[in-house]
């Protein structure tokens, strides 16, 4: 009479939730497969996004390196160092974007 018995829950509740979750994921996959023409544009957009994600840090790093070389001459080429740092940061940035988009597509 005191507290309700925890064993009195319906065993089908978990099955219904699982069935519903599988149904929702199945609908998403079917809808994604139907939009094949969109996949081409999505792929081109992703390709462009990756390109800009690498290009912008590379150009900024190179520009900063040129400015440092002109302002403070030294025996080291800051332009090349800026270029390398920009490319590395850009590749990391692109990897981050692709990984995030891939995770969202998988869900």
Features:
single chain, 107 residues, mainly alpha, 0% strand, elongated
Brief characterization of the structure:
This protein has helices at 12-34, 36-71, 78-106.
Q: Kindly report the average pLDDT value.
A: 81
Count of individual helical segments: 3
Strand-and-helix sequence, N→C? HHH
Number of domains: 1
Amount of helix: over 70%
Total strand segments? 0
Distance, first to last CA:
45 Å
- In the predicted model, the low-confidence regions spanning at least 5 consecutive residues are none
The structure class reads: mainly alpha
Broad shape: elongated
Largest sheet: none
Note the beta-strand portion.
under 5%
**Rg, nearest Å:** 26 Å
Description of the molecule:
The chain is mainly alpha-helical and 107 residues long. It is 82% helix and 0% strand. It contains 3 helices and no strands. The longest helix is centred in the middle third of the chain and has 36 residues, at 36-71. The radius of gyration is 26 Å and the shape is elongated. The two termini are 45 Å apart. The mean pLDDT is 81.
Topology (SSEs and partners):
Elements: H1 12-34, H2 36-71, H3 78-106
């Amino acid at each position: 009479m005191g507290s309700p018995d925890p064993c009195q829950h319906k065993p089908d509740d978990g099955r219904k939730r699982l069935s519903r979750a599988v149904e929702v994921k199945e609908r998403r996959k079917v809808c994604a497969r139907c939009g094949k023409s969109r996949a081409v544009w999505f792929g081109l957009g992703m390709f462009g996004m990756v390109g800009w994600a690498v290009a912008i840090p590379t150009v900024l790093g190179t520009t900063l390196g040129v400015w440092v070389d002109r302002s403070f001459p030294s025996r080291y080429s800051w332009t090349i160092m800026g270029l390398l740092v920009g490319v590395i940061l850009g590749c990391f940035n692109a990897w981050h974007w692709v990984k995030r988009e891939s995770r969202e597509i998988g869900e």
